[in-house]
Automatic annotation (TrEMBL):
It comes from the Bacteria. It comes from Catenuloplanes indicus. Residues 42-159 form the YbaK/aminoacyl-tRNA synthetase-associated domain. InterPro entries: YbaK/aa-tRNA-synt-asso_dom_sf, YbaK/aa-tRNA-synth-assoc-dom. This is Prolyl-tRNA editing enzyme YbaK/EbsC (Cys-tRNA(Pro) deacylase). GO terms for molecular function: aminoacyl-tRNA deacylase activity. Gene3D superfamilies: YbaK/aminoacyl-tRNA synthetase-associated domain.
């Protein structure tokens, strides 16, 4: 148990998972994925960590980025510790081979992922999206990430993130 979260096996609580997250977890079948119910009003990282006594370096954010190349929009997810920020205009832009990159508009991210704002997670994303992971996430014994809905959080072993579909470990992803 991390902080004062009360966790249980994620698939035992589908009410705390967005539909694409539940489907992905059923297909992924990895041990150690737990879920906790939280107050939806406290889903944003700083408020969540303060209310549930979870350190920022135990919380990982999943941000969705979008860039265009030759008229085609390319999306990716970046998973990084809450103590860091993604190098979107440097490392991520070059990695995705796009001229300009920015955070995806929230309405687009919500519509394309089937997840709620404040709950987007790297589990259950569209199959064609790469999941770029800062190596520090993998070093954490355990991290808290979104569950696809604002009223839930997943807790996973940090190293398990490397096993996500389309996961790519990217040095320098976060600063």
């Amino acid at each position: 148990m991390m902080g004062n979260l009360k966790t249980e096996p994620a698939l035992d609580r589908p009410d705390l998972l967005a539909a694409p997250v539940e489907a992905a977890l059923k297909g992924w079948n990895r041990p150690g994925v737990e879920v906790a119910a939280i107050d939806a009003g406290l889903a944003d990282t700083a408020a969540f960590c303060a209310a549930y006594d979870v350190r920022l370096d135990e919380s990982a954010n999943c941000v969705i980025v979008a860039g265009k190349r030759e008229g085609v929009t390319r999306y990716a997810a970046c998973l990084l510790l809450a103590t860091t920020r993604a190098d979107v205009n440097g490392v991520v832009r070059k990695h995705l081979n796009v001229r300009k990159l920015s955070f995806a508009p929230m309405d687009d991210a919500v519509a394309l992922t089937g997840m709620e704002h404040g709950g987007i997670t790297p589990i259950g994303l569209p199959a064609e999206w790469p999941v770029l992971i800062d190596p520090r996430v993998l070093e954490a014994a355990s991290v808290v990430i979104g569950s696809g809905v604002r009223h839930g959080k997943l807790q996973i072993p940090g190293a398990l993130a490397a096993e996500l579909p389309r996961a790519e470990i990217v040095e320098g992803l976060a600063r």
